Structures
1.
Amino acid sequence: MKTILNVIWLVLSGFWLFLAYLVAGLLLCVTIIGIPFGIAAFRIGVYALWPFGYTAVERRDAGAPSCIGNVLWLVLAGWWLAIGHIVTGIALCVTIIGIPLGVANFKLIPVSLLPLGREIVRTDQPFTATGTTQRNGW
């Protein structure tokens, strides 16, 4: 099911959102200071290209630099990318088949607004990438 949703997503909105993240990443990488933001744009662009089967989790080791970076990201690129997700999500929700894709677009808005301090992981292993492990059933 994830593969079918990903293929439909790719055709209807994933490719265009990926291009938006790619352009934002290239523009941010023009300066040395913007390179970390550009890398974040590329990482989330790949997530926006093929989102089903992956999720974004917050990194517990992300501190004040990622908070400051998120504020800068919000001003530089976050708003524009979030607007793209909103417009695409509304357009997809017009049809019954597109509703799950529109909901996925709306779920990508927080990641597009504040990407630093988050990590993209597979949905079957949401905690392994952050270094936390389950112990004693917790």
2.
Amino acid sequence: MKIIAMIPARYSASRFPGKLMKDLGGKPVILRTYEAALNTNLFTDVFIVTDSDIIFETIENAGGKAIMSKIVHECGSDRIAEAVENIEADIVINVQGDEPFIDAISLSKLIAVFKQDTKKEIDLASLKVQITNKEDIENPNNVKVITDINNLAIYFSRSVIPYYRDKDKPVKYYKHKGVYAFRKQALIDFYNNPMTPLEAAEKIEAIRYQEIGKKIKMVETDVEAVGIDTPEDLEKAIEFLKSKK
């Protein structure tokens, strides 16, 4: 089974423009992420997929592998699908470019889904983490996911799901972490279908996979990523990196 990692890397970001090229302990954030993916030893190959000349050149100059996106894309899946179309691979892992401290254990769990899926019934695997704080649960920036008894995703939403009507019944809430493992064909099918109605309403790309009939297996993790969305996050990441030395 050939397993590759694709790291979509846009230079522009509404909350923190150019964040992937910010310095993190002597190296740009995106290079830290690329090297961390390589160091997991989980992948046959690792690629950066970018729309930015400066990111492309940074990775190439460091001896890494980078692919320039040909066109503007709405989401990471589109960017990866374009790049992977002519690359030989069975499973494609989408690693977030702004999460330089990669959780190799969780990625291993995603890969295990496909190794165990001998009938090839699962199209995607992704991560979820339990959230208990009311503010986190109600925050529309946190995408929530509900699953069936086999941990197949039923729906993703920025709203609070499930709705807690009967307050004396226990209920758990899970946040969707945007780390995906795809069968290559699922990516290509996603790319060849236009944005779907519910996806457009919620602005959640995972929903398009569901609307075109793909099965998504959710894997629970208790590891919260150290993502970089704001200058404050970068400062935290710098301190976290220092603590690891």
3.
Amino acid sequence: MPNTRPNRNIPSEQENPLFHDTWKLLKNYRDAVWNLELAVQQVRSTFEIEYGSSIEEFLDSIYLAGADIGGSKLEDYAKSIERSNKMLTLLNSAVDILRSKHKHGEQYYWILYYSYLSPQQLQNTDEIIENLRPHIANISTRTYYRKRPEAVQALSSILWGYTSKDCLEMLDKFFPEGK
């Protein structure tokens, strides 16, 4: 059966689980940002109501007093928010590296931005392409659908690096076991 995908050099989600993880991460980005912002705001509000001070002021006083809040519900919630924030920071850093270092970085950035990262999700592909026009000359629907998986693949290689199958195969060629 012939391969009918537009760009045969880019693995499909089924062919490469890391690529699938990047798609999944991008597709959930807006929700993750929204949920993180809500969680932080909720913790801040609840904390100020219960303790009458900001979290920062409270933590400063706890640390100065030498108290330990380890194992508390507050610590668990703070760690959960911190993990989510680190994940989003990692993704944003990878996108920045892609934009500044990749040979098609600026184009890929705008494709990823309007497809997944902008605060408001655009309604359809036509709206995405309309927003891409100032950044990418002569962008068409076909070009968009060809370049979008390329952008995701480039981001995936930054995010997952040497854990990708292609990188491991290349390393095996240069450093075969037992030799």
4.
Amino acid sequence: MIEETVPVIETHPLEPFLPGNAVLLMLGSFPPQQKRWSMDFFYPNLQNDMWRIVGLIFFGDKEYFLKPDKKAFDKERIIDFLKQKGIALYDTATSVRRLQDNASDKFLEVVEPTDIRLLLKQLPQCRAVVTTGQKATDTFRQQMHATEPAVGSKSPFEFEDRQLFLYRMPSSSRAYPLKLEKKAEIYRLMFSELGLL
């Protein structure tokens, strides 16, 4: 008789990054396994293009947030940029099970979703939330009443006495079949609409 092993429950290894001036909250699904990290921060996997997308949009250089040896992202440079622009980061799950040994969203089972209302209460200037991927979008919508926007667009939602927008952006994972430059064009529109560019 073969015993099936139940995947372990992983708890989120990072604290929410919530600068007080944040106008945008970016929510992914959950970090990759730590063996894939190049730094101790969000989007740490060198195979994930989030920081290349942001570098291309704001600095015209997709390698802007890489360290000189190009083997890791520069956490301090990223944090300085996020604080200056007012961008908060976290994920829609605080604990998960990985049903396969990879970072793919489709094999992530959300055990405990993040309390998104609690995050938004700490961000009084926040005007928009962006979800980067389907899993994050689905998990967000289970808590907040927002229509799911098409990829690259937005829909309004209410939180307490505020009206915010939910932006649905393409995943920055290379598994999402769209060129880096094309992803950057879509993200650029969002940053521009929020007055961050």
